[in-house]
Protein 1
Amino acid sequence: MSRRDRRSSSFASAAAVFTLFSVSAAWAQTPGPLNAITDVPGIEVGNFPLPSSDPTSPPPITGTTVVVSRAGAVGGVSQRGGAPGTRETDLLRPENLVEKVNAVVLSGGSAYGLAAADGVMLCLEAQGVGFPVGGGHVVPIVPSAILFDPGRCAAFSVRPNASFGEAACQAAKGGPVQQGNVGAGAGARSGGSKGGLGTASTVLTAGASNGIIVGAIVAVNSSGRTFDTAGNFYAGFLELGNEFPLAGPTGTDVVPPSNLLQNTTIAVVATNAKLTKAQATKVAQMADDGLARAIKPSHGVGDGDTIFVMATGTDTRDATNLVSTIGSTAADTLSRAVVHAILAATGDCRVKSYCEQFPQNCPK
Amino acid sequence: MSRRDRRSSSFASAAAVFTLFSVSAAWAQTPGPLNAITDVPGIEVGNFPLPSSDPTSPPPITGTTVVVSRAGAVGGVSQRGGAPGTRETDLLRPENLVEKVNAVVLSGGSAYGLAAADGVMLCLEAQGVGFPVGGGHVVPIVPSAILFDPGRCAAFSVRPNASFGEAACQAAKGGPVQQGNVGAGAGARSGGSKGGLGTASTVLTAGASNGIIVGAIVAVNSSGRTFDTAGNFYAGFLELGNEFPLAGPTGTDVVPPSNLLQNTTIAVVATNAKLTKAQATKVAQMADDGLARAIKPSHGVGDGDTIFVMATGTDTRDATNLVSTIGSTAADTLSRAVVHAILAATGDCRVKSYCEQFPQNCPK
């Protein structure tokens, strides 16, 4: 099987057509310089905890990821999984007052982990970042979603609280984003293998969409799988620029999925496009298709899958006619971020990582 | 103007028809023994802070109210105000997994006050109350909404945090419920007057609905008013059993509404009926009409009005054919709770209470 074939699955023939179209003038695209959500100007990422620099220390077992836009980004959300844990999603509905979010928090800890957003709010308030409410005061707008990971490799009581959010917010910055067993992905699992945190970006380089940047970050903690029994990623066909180090045929020693009711994949998509709240909502809905293509099944009863959108609008052109292009790009970028998450993960106390199962596909 | 007339407003003629209908066999209703949400068996209320027993102490200026169902109650929500601050409302959608909520938290503090739910979760976890997730562990299901009150009678930084939720949860019990400047109503204002916390209940006593109990609790913090310039409550016509001590004509020295963008009225309706999640959602939607009848305007851009429903199901009969009756009763009960809130409130550092403006209607 050729290297290209290994990236194929049931989506293969559709992918071939798509590839022809995607290299036409209207859709030329490349990963951004970091291939990370931080390729979108003004978007910062903070994770807590990060892996210890001491290689003998055990990896983090739960954590928090925050995506910050200090200037505020127009927000949207798609909440389609069956067991969500969320806060501040109602305000994102297009008819509601607040337009811009200052940060989105993704966290482990099941619903307990919603506390992480408290720490992010206090961190941003201290920096004067938030919705102005008079008297120089602000209320930071910080939507949040959680995933289920408690009790996997530590006591059930070990889970993110407000201090995790505070630490992640303090660590937020532009630049490269660490992936794998990091932040909200630290305790994640995916279809019987190790899940994790992944990111990706796409720069559109032709036609009316030239200059639009879309980034995604995702904590993959899915009941469904991201690759078939031969190790082919369902979203492998969406690779841009040889970003997946997939080598060749491997074995079929794949761990079966376990608990189907304690999962949830949560993500943020960011773009420099100038979107209304309604358009950001539509982009979130289209981005959700990126989970469908990368994870099978997805959006199940025990998956609280939730996708946030942050549109910074630093590209000030009217994007009305680009919403479908941005949404489609968001879906593909999110799919690729899922693959990055699985490739970057290392095994935990009980489940193997993809790279432990298919070491040929994970060159050192 | 007669005592009855004083309760009339633009709804008066509709009310007359309704009254004729409501005393017919199908709709006979009375307040419960406490005229409080705690008339619903299994429903407990906790407030923090309560007014000091020292009358020279200033009243509380912000706080948290929790409504607890230790056995779990089927949940629903209606979120129609334009500036909401919420958590765990997505899980209440009928198609999502979790059926029952263990508590609902109402809190001051704007979005910062969402932290109160963290304390309620830890309090309930310590009591073993929550959604079972294996290994004897639970995740308490605690939806929450907040209202805007920071900076009114104290520094902007004075607002509920997790400790408020913990204290309110520890204080939760059945029995009488204190109203006025209490819990989530402590810092509330309403259309230029003092707002507050109010509660009411209705027992249906005839026909198929005999034995159904509906209770409501509400923190009234509305841009809109609850009474006209002569002191007539818009919802006065919904009085049950001479519960409003309205005496006679008074002056028109009414304070005009102030800030229209920093408000929010939040409420919980509870019933002993056995409802599905979809039915509880419908009851929440109908209950929201109770705000429309009691507060004018309501559901504005700066009102994050949010109504939760908790259906305990201790009345185990199939309630399918009673949903509209329960919803209508919920609306009326909520309207009456709004009047109770305004009548029980005392003035704060800057705005007068209803009873300071219309002392004739507030006998000692």
Note: Residues 1-26 of chain B have pLDDT under 50 and may be disordered.
Protein 2
Amino acid sequence: MTISDRPLRIAHVGPVATTIPPPMSGSVETMTWLLTNGLVAAGHDVTLFATAESVTRAKLHATFAKGYRDDGTLWPWELCEMLNLAAAVERAAAFDIIQYEAVYYPISLAFTRLSPTPIVQTLHHSPDVAEVALWALYPEAPLIAISNGQADLLRGLNVVATVLHAIETDRFEFSPQSSDYLLFLGRFTPGKGVVQAIEIARRTGMKLMLAGAENDYYRQHVAPLVDNRQILYAGEVDHETKVRLYGGARTLLYPVQAGEPFGLVLAESMACGTPVAALDRGAVREVVDDGVTGWVFDSVDAMVDGLGRVMALDRRTVRDRAVQKFGVGRMVDGYVAAYRRILNSVPVPHTR
Amino acid sequence: MTISDRPLRIAHVGPVATTIPPPMSGSVETMTWLLTNGLVAAGHDVTLFATAESVTRAKLHATFAKGYRDDGTLWPWELCEMLNLAAAVERAAAFDIIQYEAVYYPISLAFTRLSPTPIVQTLHHSPDVAEVALWALYPEAPLIAISNGQADLLRGLNVVATVLHAIETDRFEFSPQSSDYLLFLGRFTPGKGVVQAIEIARRTGMKLMLAGAENDYYRQHVAPLVDNRQILYAGEVDHETKVRLYGGARTLLYPVQAGEPFGLVLAESMACGTPVAALDRGAVREVVDDGVTGWVFDSVDAMVDGLGRVMALDRRTVRDRAVQKFGVGRMVDGYVAAYRRILNSVPVPHTR
């Protein structure tokens, strides 16, 4: 068998902040979990480098009993993440490829020229120009982008593929009938646009449910606007509650201010059949099929005016498109194709 | 020639926050500078991994034009430090030993098993039990302690030597005659004991000069006590001013609250002939020769009572003992002996 068709030996180095999957929320942990299990399901030989309490269909290599978010004595967190990646690189000869996606910045670069096996890093944020200039010290290091918008920011680096995130569409059940509220779900930061979401609710006279972990920004800027009649706050929610909130919403509001490289809540909402109203930033147009799974707007004013069009979208169609677009199988195929591309471009594997 | 007597090929990986030596203060940068130049003077083949504007007698390998403290676009700093160390490890075959001392926690561990050349890290802080437990994932990684007090904290790890820091005794000129004030010099933190120093000055009726960079702690807790008559503040001082302040002081007050692994200001003060009054914490008893270069006390009360004994010490003797104890040659000999010990304990060098 050639590298083009045989199963691959993959080291997947996940974050060690907590378990895989995460106890509550955690997009990187969730993506790690889905990709690892998906790669196993596709017949590959996968070793997950994660904390000992993680649950996975792959082999598990645990450097740490608990994560540094669960065990406060483990610090600094950067050292923990480095040692987890080092554990995989030390065993590099046992793998065809090392997949990294734990730390938001590419610590994998430091190991690129020390590993006999290629290390590919998936990036989870939108880097600025200075970050990309720094990373260009290792122009050969393979990167996987999570949207074309993000890939555009990575110009000059070795982006081997763009693979959109997946979600577990089975666990985001379709809700044919919604209730009467709008939904904002996510971290409370200026960039996520929660204040704009409240403005939109007030101007359209609709109820708005907020969900996310309480933080300083929430206490200072959001809590004073929560009146428990029109603007409601559900706290940080577990998966079950999250799905119920998505399913009951007329529309997910996504008036994002800072460009995001993906937007998981968009995909999750769609999977429950709930169309989205999103501002045109970052990867929004790649995630949202304009006029099918939601509408993309240029401004808050336009979103207020167009909200009726969003609510009129067919929930069944929204769900079907989400299932087709964000399935785990599609993501896994994208990753495996990227791995094979990397391995084919490395004519003779390095030897130590 | 065997490894026991031939000159060594040494990679010295310094911090990349700023230049080597540092423009103002910076103990790690200063130690890096002294050790590198001292190793060159002793006939070794040294390559310093530092920023391009650094000045050294060694060969210079610069991954970065400027440091991340001087160029705000370089971040996160952890990645910069990792890439600087990686640059040395990538070239490991050209060296007998890699000396690391840039980051306060041992990021060198992550490279320990990937480098064909031993990496030895000097630690600059006093680790707690949890840190040492984490580092014990790499029990073989060689460490150099800067005092026996610090080495005690590192139990279970591979401490190959304790080497006290050196200072440039020529640049801390002897002052035979002092003025009439006490001196506190250092960072303004609760651990350094600046508030206690002020208490001691007030209770003994002596003037106290404070020197150090203004920070939040200074503004909140120290500035209200500065009356510009008895308690004076000189700001952050350059080398020349620092030497003048040391030389004019009757005594350096070092009522340190948290255990420090060394205490550079003690050595610097002594080199200028100024005896020290220190609380018995951390490495104080290793740095101060009790009754010769200063007196060590158990409490602030005891220090108030005993200050006369400190001021009565002979300044010439203080200076002479400091020159003998903190010379660069002595430090360099200690490092080279440690390197040879490491190399002799590695029977056959790893090959890639």
Note: The longest helix of chain B spans residues 328-345.
Protein 3
Amino acid sequence: MHQLTHQIVLKTNGRRLYDITSEVSSWAANSAMITGVLTLYIQHTSASLLINENYDSDVLVDMEAFFARLVPDGDPLFIHTAEGFDDMPAHVRTALTQTSLSIPLVDGKLALGQWQGIFLYEHRLMPYTRKVILHLIGE
Amino acid sequence: MHQLTHQIVLKTNGRRLYDITSEVSSWAANSAMITGVLTLYIQHTSASLLINENYDSDVLVDMEAFFARLVPDGDPLFIHTAEGFDDMPAHVRTALTQTSLSIPLVDGKLALGQWQGIFLYEHRLMPYTRKVILHLIGE
Amino acid sequence: MHQLTHQIVLKTNGRRLYDITSEVSSWAANSAMITGVLTLYIQHTSASLLINENYDSDVLVDMEAFFARLVPDGDPLFIHTAEGFDDMPAHVRTALTQTSLSIPLVDGKLALGQWQGIFLYEHRLMPYTRKVILHLIGE
């Protein structure tokens, strides 16, 4: 049994879902492990992780439209406004999605379903540098 | 330290929460491991996983009522409608709940609380065949 | 490779986010492991786990304000009311946040981001005794 870790650094340029499936899958495949479990962990509270359909890009548009309506920018409900009118909504969106994901490795590949992609969800409007930690244990 | 994997195949017949606690717990108990961690991973983007109360079935009815109101079918907000008026709502419901769960194994049993059950949440109206991957590491 | 488990018992006194970062981080640091993955698991369906900003306490106030508005107590939608008008809302809030979290251990420390804290989110109004199971695997 052994372990590997990796860090993905992604420079975002606005609020949207960024597909990181390829980078994550390649890293896991290159581990030469056959069976194991991958943990993804994002080190932020205004960006999150999401497994989502990666076939029709309209799904990404609609997902963002839903969250924009559910957690509106500049909502007068919020008192934490010093970091921008999109900051507290970004924290709420992060709470409603994922900070960590666990994906089994089976037969040397991540056990993603046919239509599943792994996304970093940037919730802030301005550019940020985001870090995702990967940890793989198995053999 | 060793690992085991398993696949649960569930044929759903409509939108609701399906209790998979018994099948998951039995498999984990049969592993003969004393200490470890179980990962559950669902390979879909229109069905999800949820830990929920499994005592009063009214909780399941109310949970579904809440999600049906929060993410209405046929919402004119959505442009991804080719796969049905319940498809994009299913993706959003999946985003708001879980694609992966991690449950410790302690003293040879899953560390579920007294009222906790493990559910597969089918978000589509038509029947589907759903797959959940289980991965257990421990000793 | 080895494993450690631990149980955190927290007596809550009302609906709010309780910061458990210090207790979790100390326990992980005392494990003397360098690389690994920590699983946190809460054994309840009306309290949950959340990674959130721990710098400005206004964020915690706003987070609670958002969930209170999204899932109102005493909502006539709900039929499961025997355990109190805040019980079914607590189950929904739990479904919308996390029952389990996975955090990598890198260089002997949890890979938390600079502004991230680990919170137990009590969703009931009355006092409760809440249990969180910690499982760490690594070396």
Note: Chain B has a mean pLDDT of 97.
